[in-house]
Amino acid sequence: MIHTQNIIGQSIAIEELRDLIELVGPSESTVLILGDSGTGKELVARALHDASGRSDGPFIPVNCGAIPRELLESELFGHRRGSFTGAISDRKGRFELANNGTLFLDEIGDMPIDLQVKLLRVLQERQIDPIGSLTSVPINVRVLAATHKDIVSLMDQSLFREDLYYRLNVMPIEIQPLTDRKEDVLPLFDHFAAQHASDGKPPITLHPFSMALFLEYSWPGNVRELANLVDRYSALYAGQEVDLRKVIPSMVPPGIRALANVMDPAAPIVDKTETLNSRLAAQVIHTAEAFSDSENIERYVSAQMNNEVEQTILLAQGGGMFPEEGVQLKQHLLDIERNLIRHALASAEGNVSKTARLLNLQRTTLIEKISKHGLSSDV
Question: Domain span at residue 299?
Answer without folding.
Answer: 276-372
